[in-house]
Amino acid sequence: MKWFRRRKAEDVVPAHLPNAEEAARLFWERWFELVPVVSAALGDGEPHRVEDELTDLVNGLHPDLVFSLEQGHMAMYALVVTGQEDPRLRPYTDAWIAAAPPSDMVWEFHDSVPPVPDPTEVVVNLGKVRMRLGDYRVVAQVDGDVVDVAVYHPALSDLSDQQRQTMTFLPLDVTLGERLAGERLRRVETAELEPQGTISLLELRSLVRELAGVSDG
User: What superkingdom heads the lineage (predicted)?
Assistant: First the structure.
């Protein structure tokens, strides 16, 4: 399960945000009050029950941050709060992760999207549209130490502009991890039709990790 929320354009941005450390402290105070409700909703397979509360919680940290709930690597669940490599937001995510409680058997916390072991097994549901990441195809062009990519999935044309942007970048983030994607991917485009010479997400991972000198094991 994975879902992301951005601040809506019509939402009101607070005139004066607290400093990053204060924002992080207030976040975790509220999280400890909310976490039993969040865990119960996830246990029932109904994350939508706490979507608004979590959106408000993350907006209180900073309205331009994005969050996701997903299966943890070591814990049952993971909460990811990320600025998507925007340097303006790094003080907030740094303060947030520094103040985070230790991971336990139920929750772990990340300040960037970590790579999943096998992205091809991930399925994202967007309303009536069901997108299997294993159906993504990518064209990758290496230029020195960076890569330009064009991303294709047959269901991308059925999405809104905002959903299409999210579902172009999300597969790359969960395949490479957000930080490696930010370091090594230069231009990212959405392909309307399936291009020739495509590779799978796992083949893209091997290519980028080899380029970065990162073990693929």
Answer: Bacteria
